[in-house]
Amino acid sequence: MKHKKLSLLKIKRILSQKGYKIQKSSVLLKQGKFKGLYYTSLTSIFLIIFFGIMPTIVNFSSKFLEAPQIIENYSKKNFERVFEGEEIQLKTKENESEDKEVKFTDLYIDILEFDDLPDDVHRFSAITLEQVFKDNKYKLKNIRDTKIVKPIKIDLLPKEIKFIESTKKRKNLFIQIVLPLILKENEIIKLERKKLFVILNKNNNSEAEKKWLKKKFKQYGVVNRDLTTLKIRMDEIPVSIAVAQAAKETGWGTSRFAVDGNALFGQWTFSGEGIKPAKADIGAKHKVMKFKVLQASVRAYQRNLNTHSSYREFRKIRAIQRDNKGNLNSLELVNYLDKYAETGKEYTRILKLIIEQNKLTDFDDAKLLPSSQKLKKQI
Description:
two-stranded parallel ribbon
């Protein structure tokens, strides 16, 4: 007996004829619905979690995955700007009212005070000075050995110095006169520089210290209270350079500017009191500055090198030497004084010869006797 194959459709018809109702399974429908709900819920949970942690992911990627941001350090640029003669603008309410121009009277106020000295400043003869030095055992040979200079202060050069026939005696007398004056000014700067660093290392400064700083800003021609510039400018001039320049500018003390005007360094003035050069060009308005005493001339010279824009490179190299070793190398520094005279590099070559031939570097580490004792108490 052959069995006929019944299709699903025929079976459905037969059952319908016999009164049976055929319906789709609700279980399958329910499974489909639950499956859709499951996927919807899962998707919602994923989206909630994703958007919840997105800020954290962004912050993490910005910190660790992005290329590092380059932050430029302006401190070195500011330092270089100072070396180039530019002042760093410190924009504070306190500074906005400060004068932006440097006044001559502020720069030289302590030098102008020498003008108040009595007019009867005594001038010793060359013979008298030689005897005074001999009586006090004040010899350059002793200074080279001991590095100690006796504080013999001479206000005026002897007029007879140009008549001393022996070049060696004339040079020695000149050095003996100017050496204590140069050391005295260097000592003042050294003590003030020490005070400056003490103030800078304090968290709070007294009113007296603030007043002192304000005075020094003016004295060194520093605008906007720029401490970096003040530190660079408030420094010593090597003794050998000062002696060499005084010797070159005055012919070892024989020029009329030195004898009549106490001008050891040939500084010019266009408005102040001075002596007109005999060989000045027609129409030239400059004069050689005149001072009441030799000490004033030394102070004005040091202030000039420490503030004038022509000597920026000199101050730059001096600051570098301070940072590297602490001691100043005069034979290197002298190369940066080419703008002091019209002859430029030839001028610095001559200065170097004067230093070397007369062994002036022997005096670079010399100390004025009373000053060295005062320094020991403060260090």
